[in-house]
Specification:
This protein is an all-beta fold. The chain has a domain of 117 residues: Jelly Rolls. The radius of gyration is 21 Å and the shape is globular.
């Protein structure tokens, strides 16, 4: 595809979800409770080796050294290798590393002041400056540390811009109009060949931000969304779809570990190239498996042990289920004195997954 000179960015305010209040969960004997509380950077990358550590390593025998591949300077030397199942679609260590085809332009909103204890969801519509209709090649986002999430959705041309208003999740719509949900401090989604997400000239986007300031002082924060655009080249493509599902009937008894599973069908020929999970502060672990129609797990596709920053698992090449289903499993430890149920606040709980496919 011939790149446009223009790649456009939109920004909105994001408030830092700085962490839990002083009622930090006590240690438990649950087999998952030692995991960090969750879904978009929960993959444990391990500690990076210090440059001096290499000097102390014993030198391999020459006959062995000839056959061993030498690690590149950018590789994670010494990281444990995941098994064949867990390796499927695991995100790369660095977000936003794919070289853009064209020039990237960005617009930054903020800083925005948020007082202690304030939680809210707000929406604002922004307008891209792309002069002609275009195709999204990649989406890159940057959120202030600890922010809960940011949802980017295409909206009609008549939508009013630059007015921040309180809103509910997905007020701007669902389905293929949702471009991205950001959960990590930095994230990137690059569309595979054959997948097309089309936008109009001067496309308007709704930016929805859920924030909660747990700190004792006021926080100033910012958020950034970058859209890399290319010109359609006439090649046959399929439109990108957005899949979102979960369970609203959650009940977590006080002082207990609770596990919940949800089995979800998808089109057999759907080519999935990205997926993640979503929980709130009591979340210990979330997994997504390929599973049989009876719910038997077949293959681990996604895992998160960090409720605040779950990883965005990407698949290159995309995967198909071929008649199998997605099995979402969420585990919580409710360390509070009250039962907790499903709800929109960060003090309530959720168990969702979403996936990008075509």
């Amino acid at each position: 595809m011939r790149p446009m000179v223009l790649t456009t960015t939109i920004v909105c305010a994001v408030v830092a979800l700085a962490g839990c209040p002083d009622d930090t969960p006590p240690a438990t004997t649950s087999d998952a409770a030692d995991a960090a509380v969750s879904t978009d950077a929960g993959v444990d990358a391990g500690s990076q080796p210090d440059a001096n550590d290499d000097v102390a390593q014993p030198q391999p025998d020459a006959s062995v050294d000839v056959t061993q591949p030498q690690p590149d300077a950018t590789e994670d030397v010494g990281q444990p290798q995941p098994d064949a199942i867990e390796d499927v679609g695991q995100p790369q260590p660095d977000a936003g590393i794919t070289p853009p085809i064209g020039e990237t332009f960005s617009v930054t909103g903020g800083p925005y002041s948020v007082e202690p204890g304030v939680e809210n969801t707000v929406c604002v519509t922004k307008q891209l400056s792309n002069p002609t209709a275009a195709r999204v090649r990649a989406i890159r986002t940057t959120l202030s540390a600890g922010s809960h999430h940011m949802i980017i959705t295409k909206v009609p041309a008549f939508s009013q811009t630059d007015v921040v208003t309180p809103c509910q999740p997905f007020d701007a719509g669902m389905g293929s109009d949702v471009l991205f949900i950001a959960e990590q401090p930095q994230a990137e989604l690059v569309y595979p060949e054959g997948a097309a997400l089309e936008i109009e000239a001067n496309q308007k986007l709704s930016i929805e931000v859920h924030y909660l300031n747990y700190l004792p002082e006021t926080i100033d924060v910012t958020g950034l969304v970058e859209l890399e655009l290319i010109e359609p080249d006439g090649a046959a493509t399929e439109p990108v779809q957005f899949f979102f599902n979960g369970d609203f009937g959650l009940f977590l008894p006080a002082q207990q570990t609770t596990t919940h599973t949800t089995l979800m069908p998808m089109p057999a020929d759907a080519r999935i190239f990205g997926m993640t999970s979503h929980m709130h502060r009591l979340g210990v672990k979330a997994t997504i498996h390929r599973a049989t129609s009876s719910g038997e797990p077949l293959e681990l596709l996604h895992e998160s042990t960090d409720w605040a920053d779950p990883p965005l698992t990407q698949f290159d090449p995309p995967i198909t289920l071929g008649g199998d289903m997605l099995l979402l499993t969420c585990e919580w430890f409710n360390y509070t004195e009250q039962a907790v149920t499903f709800g929109l606040s960060a003090n309530d709980e959720m168990c969702f997954l979403w996936a990008h496919w075509f």
